[in-house]
Design goal:
The chain is of the alpha+beta class and 176 residues long. The chain has helices at residues 48-57, 97-108, 111-118, 128-141, 146-153, 159-163; strands at 2-10, 13-26, 29-40. The protein folds into 2 domains: 2-57, no CATH class; 92-169, no CATH class. The longest helix has 14 residues, at 128-141.
């Protein structure tokens, strides 16, 4: 999935908006389909994503995340750091971008708070609101069965760190 910037003219004025687009394969080759239209972003605002966040949340400004572009007022750390590339190694590589975006949309819509309120905790190890988030995010990122989510998908994503639910606790045999 990726974001596509779209432009159209209306009444002689250009309008820019963003769409969330998914790529998929067919027998006739690769195709793309729009998953969601994210709305118009004005070029006059330095961070159009802040405007989008205000529009969706109704708040003054969304909190900054790791992926927000730096502001002009932020101090710049220009001290170089030396890295020995021969000592660098990768461990436990996991899918991150799609699950991070899906979880962000889940929280932006307020589904985490709604389900936590409507589905109180009982004796279960994993709260039902977290189970609903995992299943929804899995179907958003890689539509498949619950067995596939349990056996393959969840362990290779960063949801364990994002939600705080270990891979051992994600299983289809849930007793409440």
């Amino acid at each position: 999935m990726f974001l596509r910037r779209c432009q159209r003219r209306k009444n002689g004025k250009p309008h820019h908006y963003w769409a969330l687009v998914e790529s998929y394969r067919t027998a006739r080759g690769s195709r793309q389909r729009v998953v969601a239209y994210l709305g118009e972003l004005k070029g006059s605002e330095p961070n159009g994503w802040a405007q989008l966040g205000r529009r969706l949340e109704g708040k003054a400004r969304p909190p900054l995340s790791l992926f927000d572009p730096p502001h002009q007022d932020d101090p710049v750390d220009e001290e170089p750091v030396q890295v020995n590339l021969q000592e660098v190694r990768f461990e436990r590589l996991r899918d991150f971008g799609d699950v991070w975006l899906a979880l962000g949309l889940w929280r932006l819509l307020g589904l985490d708070a709604l389900l936590t309120e409507k589905m109180p905790n009982g004796r279960e190890e994993v709260p039902w609101a977290a189970v609903a988030a995992i299943l929804t995010i899995a179907r958003f990122c890689e539509p498949s069965s619950e067995l596939h989510i349990e056996d393959h998908w969840y362990a290779r994503t960063a949801l364990e760190d994002l939600l705080g639910v270990s891979a051992e606790k994600v299983h289809t045999d849930r007793q409440g």
